[in-house]
Protein: Tryptophan--tRNA ligase
Amino acid sequence: MKRSLSGIKSTGIPHLGNYLGMIRPAIDLQDDYEAFYFVAEFHALTTERDPAAMRESTRMITAAFLAFGLDPERAAFFRQSSIPEVTELAWLLSCVTNMGVLERAHAYKAAKDAGVANHLNHGVFSYPVLMAADILIYDSDVVPVGQDQIQHLEMTRLMARHFNNTFGGDYLKLPEPMVREDVATVPGLDGRKMSKSYGNLIEPLTAPKKLRKQVMKIVTAPTPIEEPLDWESCNVFALYKLFSTSEEQAEMRANYARPDFGFGHAKQALFEKMNAHFEPFREKYDALLADTDTLEDVLERGAQRVRPVVGEVMERVRSATGLGRG
Ligand code: TYM
Structure:
């Protein structure tokens, strides 16, 4: 059975981009793949400074995956930090990775350009190396991600190839990214990619009142009262599309042409659709979040499941590089 692997940072409750771009596709893959998914605390640490928030986020994300249908009997869900060997593999990869490759990373360049001195730590610079280690340490075949992770996947393949060439063998398996076209980049409230750093999030597991508030904040184009609304360029419609059938979309397009239809109506329709979709998940999520023992048990069992694979891969790379007695 082929293996699917992915990670998500522990930086708060998952947002709609996380859900559509990664969580849903990743969970769907558990039927046909051996699924290994983890909470990327080490990556979150490049910005997170509050240990209580880190733990809370990890549990929120675990509860969310379970509520959305991850089956812990089939899929392994675990903390990145339960497998400290990833940091060892990251070092081995660092030693065969040119600085120039990392200097071209979008996330590093953006952090540098933003001049956020605090955030421009070495962890931000070497982020792609640790991510490559995360993927390669499990002999992963596919990695379900949103479009924004594609460059990291390319770098991962490059590092694996370089490691194999340097040490002369097929030690590391080259993974394939898996991106769902229609949700590769889910737009946020302002039409840009939904992202924590833009503060344009919709959080579908939050209380309905807050969710409605978020939806009502979606930015729309100022349109003179006598002109029909343009659905094609509308951020509300872009999101509505992701939760409706083609008939419902046709109906909504027709509504946009009606003189008595405003953006408020479109937002209310989107809120109702999303709320109906997420309500059953939210109930499970709230119950799970209160059940720390179950969450910790799932995380521990997940870590135990993946450990044997890690042992094998680490033995291969240690022996390839001449570490230990051989
Ligand atoms: P993170 O936590 O930023 O995001 C988790 C996943 O959500 C996807 N995503 C989106 N997809 C579509 N539209 C959006 N607006 C949107 N926003 C986020 C991301 O593409 C991602 O798949 N570097 C990773 C964490 C990581 C990882 C790994 C992933 C660490 N190690 C190994 C895969 C394999 C990250 O920052 O994800």
Q: What stands out?
A: The pocket of tryptophanyl-5'AMP is lined by residues 6-9, 17-18, 21-22, 40, 43, 131, 134-135, 143, 145-146, 148-149, 152, 183, 185-186, 193-195 (CB under 6 Å). The chain has 13 helices and five strands. The first helix runs from residue 16 to 28.
